[in-house]
């Protein structure tokens, strides 16, 4: 192979690279941002898709986030790839504990419940193992789902606005650069033909 490593990475090195990239997280975020603004779609489409992915990440239904984001993106005229990128940006193993804790607390505040007393009486691993989702709904999923609504709305609006204006300014700068290059090429072609 042309680009194969001479010495393959060990399992320990691969795990380290996944948890902490060699070039750091800033470079990963920069690549992620460039990937988002370079999507071949309108600024509204990219922003709506990305916001849909962010909004869906506030729900407690992890296994279906991508499907939900794609459906919401389709309904609001968003880009499906941007929706998937939004899911990856907001919903990952690093952010899920914070999202779950925040939605749990907000849900209990909205439902006017005492958070400590409700969760002490259930055996959550046993309920998950049996697949008894009806018993998990009221003490766990309902507060998390209701508690996810306010932060989802706030982050969705903020992310939509930032993404929309970011993509719009990127595309307008890119268009101006391309027009300038085209003018320079025309000027060179005119000068060459006049000689």
UniProtKB/TrEMBL annotation:
InterPro entries: DUF2062 (IPR018639)
Domain DUF2062: 27-174
UniProt entry tagged with the keyword Transmembrane helix: yes
Transmembrane regions: 36-58, 64-87, 94-111, 144-167
Keyword entries, A-Z: Membrane, Transmembrane, Transmembrane helix
Entry superkingdom: Bacteria
Annotated signal peptide: none
Name the record gives this protein: DUF2062 domain-containing protein
Source organism of this protein record: Rhizobium calliandrae
